[in-house]
């Protein structure tokens, strides 16, 4: 067949074929599926007179589209929680660089892609209109592209330098805090179908991230300790979410408790509810009908944190409740606290008062001593 492993079970497949001159070539490719495609391509090129051994010797470098597939299946799918997101982002990168070898992609090419994405959105293959991407999303593209090159070098698929290193990422504004006001919450509640409002309320009362909530299983909910266990949070570690009285009431009364292992199941109960589908089908139309603007699902988490802060909860406790690994992310809510900054500046008044009292006492003692 022309496909073989030098070391059985290694997962590193090679291809062997003879060219139009009868010369034997061997190439190390990677996974068997890619080796199969590479073998078929070489045979086709040879049959059609498009195979040039000297070009192969010069390049000896994997095409971006092949490395992208390898990265997704052998690295992202195994090691990253962002696999689904990586698949979507990789499509745009493959549109830009798919047919080029890694060694052919330059820093200038990456810079042009960065500017094009933030101006036009997708790399257009047709006349279809595309939207610009946010600077944060463009930065995710650059990070993924950089990851592909780093893994390619580690796996010895290329000797090319990482061209993303010389490209400066956009500065992101992560300080934006948008939360539901009481009036907006009441307006939204009237527009969300009654059977779905508990989904929104759970987010408001627990502060769980979207993925944490929609991937939740009943075995991770403990009504005795009033805790929800998130096996793998954003930081990659296990975290525990506290349930207040309202969250307990909602989950205990859930009609799906005995029908599915998922807390928020799909209609069949066999899988969890698709979060994107729910947001597009239920939440977004309700937000539009309630005239609540510039609001995303993640802002429900902001609302949870903002309301706790405005109720006087200290930032260290809030950090624990939010599952923030460092206090830096929690500090974005500090300006909402009605007490901690006022107490800080009022210490100046207390200090001045204490100093004045001390001075007055000393003066009286001096007068008394002189008398």
Strand content: 5-15%
Helix percentage: 40-55%
DSSP strand tally: 6
Question: What's the CATH class of the largest domain, please?
Answer: Mainly Alpha
Distinct helical segment count: 15
Find the structural class using helix and strand composition.
mainly alpha
CATH topology of the largest domain, which one?
A: hpI Integrase, Chain A
CATH architecture heading of the largest domain: Orthogonal Bundle
User: Alpha-carbon distance between the termini?
Assistant: 116 Å
CATH homology-level superfamily of the largest domain: Intergrase catalytic core
Overall description:
The chain has 371 residues and is mainly α. It has three domains: 3-60, no CATH class; 65-166, DNA polymerase, domain 1, CATH 1.10.150; 182-293, Intergrase catalytic core (hpI Integrase, Chain A, Orthogonal Bundle), CATH 1.10.443. The protein is built from 15 helices and six strands. The strands form two sheets. Strands 1-2-3 form a three-stranded antiparallel sheet, covered by helices on one side. Strands 4-5-6 form a three-stranded antiparallel sheet, with no helix packed on it. β1 (3-5) and β2 (13-18) form a beta hairpin. The longest helix has 31 residues, at 340-370. The model is unreliable at 124-128 (pLDDT under 50).
